Amino acid sequence: MKKGWLYQAALLAALGLVFWVFASNTAQNLEVRRIASGFGFLSREAGFEIGETAFLAYSAADSYARALAVGLANTLWVAALGVVLATLLGLAVGLARLSPNWLLARLAAAYVETLRNVPLLVQLFFWYAIISEGLPPPAEALQPLPGVFLSNRGVFFPLPGDAPALTGFNFAGGAALSPEFAALLTGLATYTAAFIAEIVRAGIESVPRGQREAARSLGLRHADEVRCVVLPQALRLAVPPLTSQYLNLAKNSSLAVAIGYPDFVSIANTTMNQTGQAIEGVALIMAVFLTISLSISAFMNWYNRRVALRGLRR
Amino acid sequence: MSGCLAWARRSLFSGWLSTLTTLALLWLAWRWLPPLVDWAIASAVWRAEGPSACRGAQGACWAFIAEKHRFILFGTYPFEQHWRPAAASLLLIVLWLCSSLRRFWNGGLAAAWVAGLALIGALMWGGVAGLPYVENERWGGLTLTLLLATFGIAFALPLSIVLALGRRSTLPVLRLACTGYIELVRGVPLISVLFMASVMLPLFLPAGLTIDKLLRAQLALVLFAAAYLAEVVRGGLQAIPRGQHEAADALGFAYWRKMGLVILPQALRLSIPPLVNTFIGLFKDTSLVLIIGLFDFLSTVKVSLQDPAWSGFGLEAYLFASLVYFAFCHAMSSYSRRLEHESARAVVSGAAAPYNRGS
Amino acid sequence: MKLVIRCAAVLAALSAGHASAQATAEAVAKKGFVQCGVNVGLAGFSQPDSQGVWKGIDVDLCRAVAAAVLGDASKVRYTPLTAQQRFTALQSGEVDILSRNTTWTLSRDTSLGLNFAGVNYYDGQGFMVPAKRKVKSAKQLNGATVCVQPGTTTELNLADYFRTHKMKFKPVVIEKLEEVLNAYFTGRCDVYTTDVSGLVAVRASRAPKPAEHVILPEVISKEPLGPAVRHGDDRWFDIVKWSLYAMIEAEELGLSSKNIEQQAGSANPAVQRFVGATGDLGKMLGLDNRWAVHIIKQVGNYAESFDANLKPLGFERGINKLWTQGGLMYAPPIR
User: What is the pLDDT, as a whole number, of residue C324?
Assistant: First the structure.
């Protein structure tokens, strides 16, 4: 036992030493290179524009802090929608893989195998090329529904009392979805759905055949059998791996920088570049993603407990 | 013939819903497949003297890949020396193939890896046996991707075992440090770790001491992958029944002997399929080094697109990149699936240890 | 425990190792090559070709320095750098020169600890729009969607310009050139903005029909691009600076890679000094007296470098002509 304490003390000392060496080097380097430190830059004027602002108003005259807040809102927005879409799509593909229809099952299997084995970054480039090259310019926008315009500037929806109209260069008014956002969302959702589909399949296959037979012999209809017998049991197995997929989706949203969606990493990147304060920038990125990760974990753990408890009560 | 019909009735037209699905899918295939085949094969330009032959063509311009393939595969490595990275890549692939076969799982394999990596180093750097020296700034393309992935795994795996053991240790400081590290790294995106390696690490080091970019990116990949692998290894460790620990203790084994001879061999064997899956993730993740300006495979594909003479063939370039990544990842994932089936069969036949009992 | 002590010793050595930064010129001579930070891929400035060989005017500058210091232009190692990494890489000593289309500004020259050793390309930011828009001036761009690459002064100039003229715009910020151009040519943006040199090159080489795109007359910024070295190493600063000037001066003297050997016997005293036949200008720089001959013979003069790298892309010499021809390229006297 004494030996154990000795090891631990040595470990602590080593960690402390490494930390101290890094800190002293950094302090010296910052001084020599005259790089400012601290978070004072947050209140300075950012000076750059942001292409899309999900919930917060922003202009180039606002501060870095506000610019970063806009980036954070954009990250959260795309991650939240991505989680919902990926879950729905993943569920559909997972069920399709177990379909008695051979063609559908093979197609679903091919979907999973292809999407899982190509890096997300390549897929994002693809989606962006398809969306921005496949749709017409605003002047020739498609109008699938009255008041809804589809062009390579994105999708424009009417809001009550505020319909989009073509003015000069682009549509004004209404609500809009940009191509960058659409490409990122599609990429994240379809990629993560491939993983979720496998989780769903594994979950459903784990439900013993006897359970389904019992449900059928009780005279339950197929839908009820799935809803009351199969899914509750499958879900219990699926929640922990689902959590890590949601975490991955949130972290993968940082690839937005490659296709021009102004997420948190992209804004922090520009900020680092302009202020030269790399340490603060990377620290902010890490802090934000850690917070997001911990929140998702906490929520899913709570949900997991709920699902598991209900199972026990029965 | 009747068997075929019976199969079709059973698996394609078993009910009205199934019939409808089949018909819808067939209709889609009829609509989409012919133009796709026409673009990719029939009307495609396979060979051309220059980009002008592609500009007017209706189909894909595979001549772009033909023109740029040497750069895409080997990056800025000296042109006349390209056989060296080619040989090194082949050697790496052969080593991986050998490692996947159970019959080679013995001490000889480790020796083969050491010898193989030394040979690869000699080939890539040169400076021996009359080969001119090539600095590692000039390595690139698919070779670099393979090297990043291989060394990433080679260094991350031992580190991950230490981390996993640390996380299950009874020493609170050690446990806390390992848990903190694993959770911290798993909570942040790889991009931020790469940013750290590329813009922050130089600030941590004393003036005058620099680590080159490739090494920094490799370090970031290793540190990142180790955290994920550690959780896989921990899963394997948890599946080892308590009886095994007790038996080792009863034999009077000390900690390292117990772990090295009894627990780890079993745990690692159990974790092979999930380990392979994590390797696939690492292989795909190497593509992110393009964000910090390293010439990996995806990066050479993109830089090729920036040649003004050959710009505008992005779709072809990305399809080619996807195909290459797919080939590697698909091979690994089919392998991990086969292992899973094998171990599942072993469990059913009772040949393996009863994994699910205990703890 | 022994291991711990040993590790501690190594770490202590690391932290104490703030050895005085070795003079770069000596270090370069000792290691036998120049480590040069370049762009990851920008046609005409620095870009590997199909055989993986680096080409471009920024690359030529690195080669010129290697020729001057080591007598061999091929003794360069290239470190491709992103916009974020470039200054850190130079400050930390990872590269000896930063020759990566970097705009010379006061803040970079002072607070980043850099010295800009001259200008090898005078640039300025402009706008390109499709001709069918019938836009005649940048002042008509209110409400436009603008494609721009991040991480440079471009983004800031753009925001400044629209604010000054009380106009609104929507930026589409994309990291990679290929994607940003794609976005413009497919109509995702109304306007593409970057340095005018880049606009010219893009219009000539990328546009399906170059005549369908116009570059607006407004140039909204000054972008003198040039090589940078670390503060506090004056000798190395001098070498890089005069290597650049030697290329410009050679053009003015009519010396090129083709004729420098023949011209060495010329009676012109300026040429005599330049080739090192008289005087000891090379020695003053701490170099071989034939330093300039090495540069011109192996790399070429400024015009040769420009014609080989930028002209094929459709670049005009414009303000980058020699001062004798009404441009800004002006080398102080090499005497």
Answer: 95
Cβ neighbours of C19 in A, within 8 Å: none
- Residue A258's domain is classified under what CATH number? 1.10.3720.10
- Examine the domain organization and report whether C204 and C191 are in the same domain: yes
Task: Name the closest residue on chain C to residue A52, using Cα atoms.
Answer: C170
Domain count, chain A: 1
C109 touches chain A (CB under 8 A): no
* pLDDT beyond 90 at A176: no
Mean pLDDT value of segment A67-90: 94
* Residue B54 confidence (pLDDT): 81
Nearest to B71 by CA among B295, B288, B285: B295
Residue C100: enclosing H or E segment and its boundaries?
A: strand C97-103
Taking CB atoms and an 8 Å cut-off, how many pairs form between chains A and C? 125
Outline where A98-143 has alpha helix (H).
102-116, 120-134
Residue C269 lies in a domain: yes
Phi–psi pair at A177, nearest 5 degrees: -120, 120
* Domain assignment present for A8: no
HSE of C192, CA atoms in CB hemisphere, 13 A: 31
- On whether residue C158 sits in a domain, the answer given is yes
Task: Evaluate whether B139 touches B124 at the Cβ level (below 8 Å).
Answer: yes
> Domain span at residue A271?
68-313
Q: CB-CB: which of A4, A114, A289 is closest to B189?
A: A289
Q: Note whether C93 and C238 are same-domain residues.
A: yes
Question: How far apart are the C-alpha atoms of C117 and C61, rounded to whole Å?
Answer: 11
Determine the length of chain C: 335
Domain segments of chain B as ranges: 135-349
My answer on whether C148 and C191 are in the same domain is yes
What pLDDT is recorded for position B349? Answer: 52
* Contact indicator for B321, B169 with CB cutoff of 8 Å: no
- Given 3-state DSSP classes, what are the helix, strand and coil percentages for chain B, each rounded to the nearest 5? 75, 0, 20
DSSP summary character for residue C84: T
Q: Are residues C100 and C238 in the same domain?
A: yes
Contact C4 A34 (CB under 8 A): no
Of B22, B186, B192, which is closest to A282 when you measure between CB atoms? Answer: B192
Pairwise CA distance, residues B159 & B150, whole Å: 14
A residues 271-310 closer than 8 Å to B (CB): 272, 278-279, 281-282, 285-286, 289-290, 293-294
Residue C206 lies in a domain: yes
d(CA B167, CA B175): 5
pLDDT on residue C10: 46
**Distance between CA atoms of residues B316 and A125, nearest Å:** 12
Check whether residue C116 and residue C129 sit in a common domain: no
Residue B196 has pLDDT above 70, yes or no: yes
**pLDDT confidence tier of residue A91, bands split at 50, 70 and 90:** very high
Quick: pLDDT tens for B315-359: 888 889 999 999 999 999 888 888 878 777 665 554 444 333 333
Q: What is the token pair recorded at C90?
A: 């130079």
CATH of the domain at C193: 3.40.190.10
Same domain? For C41 and C98 the reply is yes
How many domains does chain C contain in total? 2
Task: Write out the residue range of the structural domain in which residue C28 sits.
Answer: 22-122+224-325
Residue range B244-283, pLDDT digits in tens:
888 888 888 888 888 888 888 888 887 888 888 889 999 9
Percent of chain C with pLDDT over 90: 49
Q: What is the ipTM of this complex?
A: 0.84
Q: Are C151 and C239 within one domain? A: no
Mean pLDDT of B296-307: 85
* Eight-state DSSP code of residue B260: I
Q: Hey, which CATH number is domain B135-349, 2.70.70.10, 1.10.10.10, 1.10.3720.10, 1.20.200.10? A: 1.10.3720.10
Across the interface, do C188 and A132 touch by the CB < 8 Å criterion? Answer: yes
Q: pLDDT band for position B1 (50/70/90)?
A: low
